[in-house]
């Protein structure tokens, strides 16, 4: 070895963060793409089961009571409750942590960078809601206005993955930012519009749980297991209030530290708790919680023989709002703010790409079905809304694939160098 040979320099902290961000994005996209296929499989099994000669067993298993006891206290609820109201809290916890992370140092930390995706998300919520309300103006129908406003990031990323690597990295980042904003809007909608008859004493209980979380953080507890009991207190308090208890997951996610600080088990160079816990929970949510939710909730009758005219309008309203309203809202709002000079399209993203984003945003499954369960009391209305979600999401996915293949072919023909992810960009972040 020559004495003049210089030893390679160690990567700087910024380079380490950039590499870590890229690795996180790649892992996230892989998990979401595969889990989207798992969701499709779970939904297909539920649909086949619920429309087979064994449909009675499908409904019976989710209504079977599952009891938990501690001392003389026993809580007994149907299995459907434990999945939708308890297990889905983990899903919302991951959503809350990703929102917290993005606000701190990700795509939502720079207002100028996030302005266009956030505005597009707002349009993608408002236009579908207006279309649904235009088609459903009677009592018993109006409550479902928020069902077609949500986007399923796992399905959307799964469809995007089928289009290959020709899709510009700016489109992928735009989609993730839009989806995070969409999730945040959905959380606000659930908290404000689908939490009835609030019992304010429950908020005091939840506040105690939040206080315990902050105290444990102050004392330096870094293990996630230490926060199970405080988290359960927050969940129980929200259940007492009448608000949906899964929102406790968002609250706990937003309280998760974004820096290691003085927490035991974390060094100065280790991942912050919000990134570490989110990365550990994400596969469990993607491959376990969400498919189980799909299996328990996607089993609706496709015959519609007992459906009333109102129920048919609910189905049509949801499906059309997803297929038509979502892309119109996303593209129309984006075009307006760009036209007015408030924002500009990211580098490498054309208006054809924005239309693809709008079509992908019309794939609303997990959150849409979740809101459908909250919006209606009658089983026929719930099933009608779910049927609309399935039809609208499937149609949006098919149209997005057709449009996306054409768009990818155009990008390849132009040889756009920006179609591949930039491995040196530290701003690339993952979504929930």
Describe this structure in words.
With 432 residues, the protein is mainly alpha-helical. It has a single domain, classed as Na+/H+ antiporter like domain (Na+/H+ antiporter like fold, Up-down Bundle), CATH 1.20.1530.10. It is 67% helix and 3% strand. It has a two-stranded antiparallel sheet with strand order 1-2. A hairpin with a 2-residue loop joins strand 1 and strand 2. Helix 4 runs antiparallel to helix 11 and helix 7 runs antiparallel to helix 8. The relative contact order is 0.18. The C terminus is likely disordered.
Features:
432 residues; Na+/H+ antiporter like fold; mainly alpha; single chain; 2 strands
Please write out the topology.
Blueprint: H1 13-50, H2 55-63, E1 65-70, E2 73-78, H3 79-105, H4 111-135, H5 153-162, H6 169-193, H7 201-218, H8 228-241, H9 247-255, H10 273-297, H11 309-339, H12 351-361, H13 366-375, H14 379-414
Antiparallel strand pairs: 1-2
Helix pairs in contact: 1-5, 1-10, 3-6, 3-9, 3-10, 4-6, 4-11, 5-14, 6-12, 7-8, 7-9, 8-9, 11-12, 11-14, 12-14, 13-14
